[in-house]
Amino acid sequence: MTRRGRSESHRKGNSTGIPTRLGRDGLLVTVAGALVALSLVAMSAWDFHAERTPVGGEALIRLRPGEPFSVVARQLVDAGVARSALNLNLWAYLSGVDRQVRPGEYLLRSPVSPRAALEQLRSGAAGYRVLTIPEGSTLEDIAALYEAAGFGSAKAFLQASGEPALLEELGMPSTGLEGYLYPDTYHFVWADPPERMIRTMVRRFRLQTASLQADRERLGLSEHQLVTLASIIEKEAKRSEERPLISAVFHNRLRKGMRLQADPTAVYGLGRGIQPEPEHLRLKTPYNTYLNEGLPPGPICNPGLPALEAAARPAPVDYLFFVARGDGSHVFSHTLQEHTKHVRELSQAEAPAAVQERTKKPVPRAAREKGKRFRRGKKR
Hints:
Elements: H1 3-13, H2 20-49, E1 58-63, H3 69-78, H4 85-95, E2 104-109, H5 114-123, E3 127-132, H6 139-148, H7 154-161, H8 164-169, E4 185-189, H9 194-209, H10 213-219, H11 223-236, H12 243-255, H13 263-267, H14 305-312, E5 321-324, E6 330-333, H15 336-349, H16 352-360, H17 365-375
Antiparallel strand pairs: 1-2, 2-3, 3-4, 5-6
Helix pairs in contact: 3-4, 6-7, 11-12, 11-14, 12-14
């Protein structure tokens, strides 16, 4: 065979024109790449199922409505639950979980795998949401916060709070839950019914106030009387250092048979956010301590621990009066003569226009109507 024939035969045997050795090398590279890819997939799968302890023992994962899944992936990596945000995003995309996770707050406790964490976010059953109750909130305020946090309607919370069976179970007085829903920051599962939340708040109240029992009994007060007094202190005191002093004023007045004359009691039950005005002090409601002797029938808000402690441990002073300054502090007096003098001095120091504006405000019609319902025993 001639050289030309051999050359043509060689070309026919390798029609691609690529040298045979190079073809073998390419195949080896392809196989090696596939093996590496399979190894990476296997490692990713192992990582996806491996259980790890979150940093600090637990991790709170937050996902707000509209946020992409990558936010969750980054939080899981930062918490030490997953090692690779890229792998987590890939697995979530392939499984469709990234389109199924529900907004909320999820408390992950050790040990937990990325897969288990994603399943919790997908099901939403363990999704925690924060419910913060400020000190001095009323039952209606808490119902509004419950709705704003996305747990359900305020109406549903108020209905649950009035269930006779629940009130009996919790040992509540005839006035209901007002005063016993402990102000604090709570983490509830989004699907928790309002009854469970109420039980949690009341249990925390019992836990936090257990240490006050001896002081309360020394003063000759029942639990309900202590909470009622603390709720008035909560509404009156704007500065923490004055709570024991305000408490002492009320204790001293009760001992002497004097009316408490606490402004916040005059507007309780008239609606959210109503500030006391001179006209309110004449409204005939069971809670108005300007018109009624002793403590009101029940608390006017849910007091925090500092107010409860002040009610149980009043300052050792014999003040009987106080009047508010413009900065939230108060001037305390022993006698009516001193008190009248302080009121006059503070009134003169105020701008006349401010005094005139305050004294001219009429009681809103809705508040007057609520006052009438109170008198008929139909508080709503």
